């Protein structure tokens, strides 16, 4: 089982994490998305630790109570700050300027794509679940009406009462969203223990309100990349998923998980672990 730890990168930025493995081993940093938490990576952190890696999955800015700047000031939640957090966590965990493996899902995937573009010399391998390359995603939004329909919930998150709506009736919306995507009930409870309160939800929604998604084109990704997409994902369509290959300038593997929804790490943990371990073994740090 992973261990609970805290990592401090500044006096007001203390991140809750789950971790496994030996501190000096090759690092794997795993970044969660919305509406989950570090706990989505429990199976993967455990498997990575067992295979000799040092695996760290933080609950990111706003999700960790000790790293929750005022969400009313959206600039605290711009994606550049989220990327800087990730790199600072790597350094605070004792990995300085060493290369490391990077894994991201959903919003964590957006951060991972950005880091791979900004710090190609640091990323030994990249694994992204669900979230396509930003260029492919933005192209699909502009040309594929289906993708625009799948992403319409983003606008609802900008409404002032969005946190109240999501958390109403014992977080009914959130529970139903996760359950409909095959997230087990015990995993839902772990995520709600992090996210199921007004302060955390307002901070999580600040990621959207900051307009922090990557809008300008990224350069070609030069890290070996594994992209995992469930063909039952209700937020990412096939055009964006299949189009990601156009923006990778490195060894690339695209894995489609039949019948799997948006939250693959929770819904199909064994398969995600298998694919991730194969990818890391093929591209050592």
TrEMBL record:
Give the protein's recorded name. AB hydrolase-1 domain-containing protein
From which residue to which does any coiled coil extend?
Answer: none
User: InterPro entries of this UniProt entry?
Assistant: AB_hydrolase_1, AB_hydrolase_fold, Epox_hydrolase-like
Residue stretches making up the AB hydrolase-1 domain: 26-187
Keyword field: Hydrolase
**Record keyword Calcium present:** no
Q: What is the lineage of its organism?
A: Bacteria, Pseudomonadati, Pseudomonadota, Alphaproteobacteria, Hyphomicrobiales
Organism annotation: Bradyrhizobium retamae
The terms under GO molecular function for this entry are: hydrolase activity
């Amino acid at each position: 089982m992973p261990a609970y730890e805290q990592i401090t990168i500044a006096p007001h930025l203390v991140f809750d994490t789950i971790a496994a493995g030996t501190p000096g081993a090759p690092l794997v940093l795993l970044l969660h998305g919305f509406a989950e938490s570090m706990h989505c990576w429990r199976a993967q952190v455990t498997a990575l630790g067992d295979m000799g890696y040092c695996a760290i999955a933080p609950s990111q800015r706003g999700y960790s109570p000790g790293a929750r700047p005022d969400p009313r000031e959206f600039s605290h939640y711009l994606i550049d700050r989220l990327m800087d957090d990730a790199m600072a966590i790597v350094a605070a965990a004792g990995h300085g300027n060493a290369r490391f493996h990077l894994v991201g899902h959903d919003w964590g995937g957006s951060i991972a794509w950005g880091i791979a573009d900004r710090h190609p010399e640091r990323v030994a391998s990249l694994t992204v679940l669900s979230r396509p390359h930003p260029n492919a995603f933005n192209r699909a939004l502009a040309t594929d009406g289906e993708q625009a329909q799948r992403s319409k919930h983003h606008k609802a998150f900008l409404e002032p009462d969005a946190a109240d709506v999501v958390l109403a009736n014992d977080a009914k919306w959130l529970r139903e969203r996760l359950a409909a995507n095959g997230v087990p009930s015990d995993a839902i409870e772990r995520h709600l223990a992090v996210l199921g309160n007004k302060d955390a939800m307002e901070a999580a929604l600040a990621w959207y309100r900051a307009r922090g998604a990557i809008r300008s084109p990224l350069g070609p990704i030069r890290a070996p990349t594994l992209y995992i997409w469930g063909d039952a994902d209700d937020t990412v369509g096939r055009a964006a998923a299949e189009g990601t290959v156009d923006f990778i300038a490195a060894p690339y593997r695209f894995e489609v998980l039949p019948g799997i929804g948006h939250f693959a790490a929770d819904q199909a943990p064994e398969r995600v672990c298998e694919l991730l371990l194969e990818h890391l073994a093929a591209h050592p740090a």
